[in-house]
Design the sequence.
């Protein structure tokens, strides 16, 4: 099962609730950040493509600088994604093996459709929120980002309308509908099927 949605839609909140229900959740975005710092093959590829300044002298990735570079240039973002997504895919497959006995697992990723990883999932849940609310949430959550930075991220993610067309299930997180009952209904359905 996949969970996706635009930045600030509430994917992580939804996945935390699934975790409280005992569902294993693979957070692809967090794992990607970790792999960009620890996977020696990926680190070398990033340095080769984006320069050694992508990492600090103590070996930590310069996320803010790299993000500003790639979100300002779609070709560079595509290059970075071509490096990172296969490594995350391998990591996910290794993670998945330990949960073969569970009724279902969740892969949380902002770019499930863009990366093509939806093809390896049974179903995809899209978490939907209005763009103005998503902007407000991200500005509140990430003080290092400006509205311009977030708009750039919006432009580089698949439009929500397209995600909704492709979705098998939708969770509305617009602060006018309760999220937990929506998740509980889906959980009951998924457990019955498996």
Sequence:
């Amino acid at each position: 099962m996949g969970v996706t949605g635009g930045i600030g839609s509430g994917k992580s909140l939804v996945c935390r609730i699934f975790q409280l229900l005992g569902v294993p959740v693979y957070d692809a975005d967090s794992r990607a950040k970790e792999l960009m710092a620890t996977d020696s093959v990926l680190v070398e590829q990033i340095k080769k493509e984006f320069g050694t300044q992508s990492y600090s002298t103590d070996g930590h990735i310069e996320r803010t600088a790299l993000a500003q570079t790639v979100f300002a240039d779609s070709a560079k973002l595509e290059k970075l994604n071509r490096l990172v997504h296969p490594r995350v895919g391998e990591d996910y497959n290794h993670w998945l093996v330990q949960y073969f006995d569970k009724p279902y697992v969740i892969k949380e990723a902002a770019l499930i459709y863009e990366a093509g990883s939806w093809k390896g999932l049974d179903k995809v849940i899209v978490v939907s929120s209005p763009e103005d609310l998503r902007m407000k949430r991200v500005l509140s959550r990430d003080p290092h980002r400006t509205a311009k930075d977030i708009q750039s991220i919006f432009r580089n993610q698949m439009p929500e309308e397209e995600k909704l067309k492709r979705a098998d299930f939708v969770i509305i997180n617009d602060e006018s509908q309760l999220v937990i009952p929506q998740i509980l209904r889906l959980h009951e359905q998924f457990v019955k099927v498996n």
User: Anything to note?
Assistant: Residues 74-96 form the longest helix (23 residues).
